[in-house]
Amino acid sequence: MSAFAFTHGGPQGPDDALLDFSVNTNPLGPNPALVRAWHDAPLADYPDPHYTRAREALAAWHGWHPDGVALGVGASELLHRLARLLVRPSDVVLSLGAPFGEFALAVAQQGGELRVLPRDEGGLRACLAQPAARVLYLSNPHNPTGHYLDLNRLRAFAGVVIADEAYLPFMAAPLAVSPWPGLVRVQSPSKAHGLLGMRLAYALAEPNLARELRTLQPAWAIPSPLAAALEALPKQGDFLARTLPTARVWAKQLAQDLGGEETGLHFFTVRVGDAAAVAAALRAQGIRIRDCASFGLPDRVRVAARTPADNRKLIEAWQTLQIPERATSRS
Amino acid sequence: MSAFAFTHGGPQGPDDALLDFSVNTNPLGPNPALVRAWHDAPLADYPDPHYTRAREALAAWHGWHPDGVALGVGASELLHRLARLLVRPSDVVLSLGAPFGEFALAVAQQGGELRVLPRDEGGLRACLAQPAARVLYLSNPHNPTGHYLDLNRLRAFAGVVIADEAYLPFMAAPLAVSPWPGLVRVQSPSKAHGLLGMRLAYALAEPNLARELRTLQPAWAIPSPLAAALEALPKQGDFLARTLPTARVWAKQLAQDLGGEETGLHFFTVRVGDAAAVAAALRAQGIRIRDCASFGLPDRVRVAARTPADNRKLIEAWQTLQIPERATSRS
């Protein structure tokens, strides 16, 4: 199982100083107001064991019931807990497109069988035609392609739909979702706010399911400052409005410069032929990008745009590579 | 299971302003150096997924191998993970004295059967005579009585011994422990440093077992500042040396004033007859103490001493209570 555990994009060691285009974070972060909420939180006392204020604030923001909010320490922690709650040995778990590696690992730890279906009309139809499957996972928008699916189209699925919306805040205009009892929306706003070290995460779910999720979490598993930052989150929408349009423009420009496929988000993929070789060659020049082999796309790399100055360094390094012409064609 | 979940001593809501003698924390905390380490930690980037520096620092401090260190978000999170790793349905799990409620809950969630044995020579012999039991738990020193058992006496136990050493830092002179392969020492220094909101925790265990414990933890489950504070911990021994002797003196005085049983720690128990009634009467006066019914001691309360000014308020309130004379006798 450790094969899963080591395919993430983040730094692999404490002294890693590569210029990092593999981490899908807001290049205009961190959000100073959330940093302040984190630093102002009391450290001496136990957190409220029910984390009432944070859950109420998030619920009011999303028009959801506070009982339907479960807090987590990063999306990976929430996804592992969801797998423990929902996946029994030999259960079939569907994924529209390759899942986040931690979810695949969590399903394997539960003894479930993961079936990855393509993110197209055929894959969607195949999901809806499997009434025996109890869980359907999708990252939405999808990592790494940016593909976005209207969740309302999954209402007919008989089991639980887990929508991993880590990259939803980066979208300019996501569609409205009318919640239904089988839908769980996993939110991990650390990326959008440029605060990956905080591990901000929460799930919006039907109250009974959310309650069971909370029961599976040990007492006081959320440090007080993490709960305080989650509580402050609803007041931070203007930070995203101020920064993300710029990030999208930078990403669009970089995608054009590298021959990548624009997504409308801050990251995109580029067809390069042998992604592992391209990632290794850039790494030798002090730059990290994400080889998409672990997403089932061995001919693509994923690039999360940074500031224009950093992006220029990537373009310069990129021009030294031998990327076959046909690799970047869209056909 | 919620019966377990609501018997903790911490505040039960966000607006609870009782004078709290139920929380077993250092009255001279918080430790400013750990607060600084927390606030200085980077928030923008992913933590190192292996938390190498924190594990190496803790290992060097304890004379342990870094592979034998597993970090947690509070002792409760580590104990739940240990139960998942070690307890299979119908397993017998022994506890010398009533366990921390979260461990009992974790054993129940795994389908294990918990057997609580007394913390005396008879209980110790009964543990060692049960070779079929795979796990033995004890808090050491014991919460709430302060009873301390030389762990070396448990070497002959056939399974895994989980020593929950949350209160060990408060002891003036603990015995040396020579590690053996079946021993897991769970450390939660948040209490000793007066930093309950941080959820500092780690386990020292045989490397293979610690590795499995780490595998059961989702990726990046430790926020960066929590790892930074754990890394800084070995340099903070002098804070304990500066503060805890004073805390012990205050506790000794308060125990004498209330007719309690001194423990050499900062907390103690008092026999009061009907502990629930005494706790309720004090609560009506704005003071919280810990009713020990959930520890199987319905005639005792646990008091964690605070500063002398706070302690005087407890003594004054205590004098208004009708506590039967025989209740506080030591016979």
From TrEMBL, chains A, B:
GO terms for biological process: L-histidine biosynthetic process. Keywords: Amino-acid biosynthesis, Aminotransferase, Histidine biosynthesis, Pyridoxal phosphate, Transferase. InterPro entries: Aminotransferase_I/II_large (IPR004839), HistidinolP_aminotransfase (IPR050106), PyrdxlP-dep_Trfase (IPR015424), PyrdxlP-dep_Trfase_major (IPR015421), PyrdxlP-dep_Trfase_small (IPR015422). Its EC number is 2.6.1.9. It is an enzyme of class 2 (transferase). Pathway: Amino-acid biosynthesis; L-histidine biosynthesis; L-histidine from 5-phospho-alpha-D-ribose 1-diphosphate: step 7/9. It comes from the Bacteria. Residues 18-317 form the Aminotransferase class I/classII large domain. GO terms for molecular function: histidinol-phosphate transaminase activity; pyridoxal phosphate binding. It catalyses: L-histidinol phosphate + 2-oxoglutarate = 3-(imidazol-4-yl)-2-oxopropyl phosphate + L-glutamate. Pfam families: Aminotran_1_2 (PF00155). Belongs to the class-II pyridoxal-phosphate-dependent aminotransferase family. Histidinol-phosphate aminotransferase subfamily. This is histidinol-phosphate transaminase. It comes from Candidatus Thermofonsia Clade 3 bacterium. The lineage of its organism: Bacteria, Bacillati, Chloroflexota, Candidatus Thermofontia, Candidatus Thermofonsia Clade 3.
